[in-house]
Amino acid sequence: MEGIREIATIWSAELRRAVRSPRVIILLGLYGLFSALALFLVGWITSRVSAAAAEQLNAQSAPEGALDQAAANAKQALLSGLFDKDASLLEALSKLPLVIPVVFKITLFFLPAYVAFLGFDQLSGEIEPKSIRYLAIRARRSSILVGKFLAQATVVVGMILVIDAVIFAYARLISPDFAFGLLAPSLLRFWIAAAVFSVAYVALTTLCSALFALPAVSLIVNFFALFVFWVIQAVGSYLQDAAAMQAAAAGEEPSRPVLALVRFLSPSAYSTDLLHPEWARFGIGIGAYAAFSAAFLVLGWAILRARDV
Amino acid sequence: MSDAAIDIAQATKQFGPTVAVNQVSLQVSRGACYGLIGPNGAGKTTLFSLLCGYLRPTRGTVRILGQDPRSPGAIKGKLGVLPQDAAFPASITVGALLTYWARLSGLAPAERHAREAVERVALVEAWNVEARALSHGMAKRIAMAQALMGNPPVVLLDEPTAGLDPRIAAHVRQLIREMKGTQTVVVSSHNLHELEELCDGAAILDRGRLMQAGSMAELTARAEEFRVEIARGEVPLDAIRALQGCTQAAFAGGQLAVSFDGRQVPPEEMITRTLEALIRAGVKVLGVSRGRKLEERVLQLT
Question: What ipTM was reported for this prediction?
Answer without folding.
Answer: 0.84
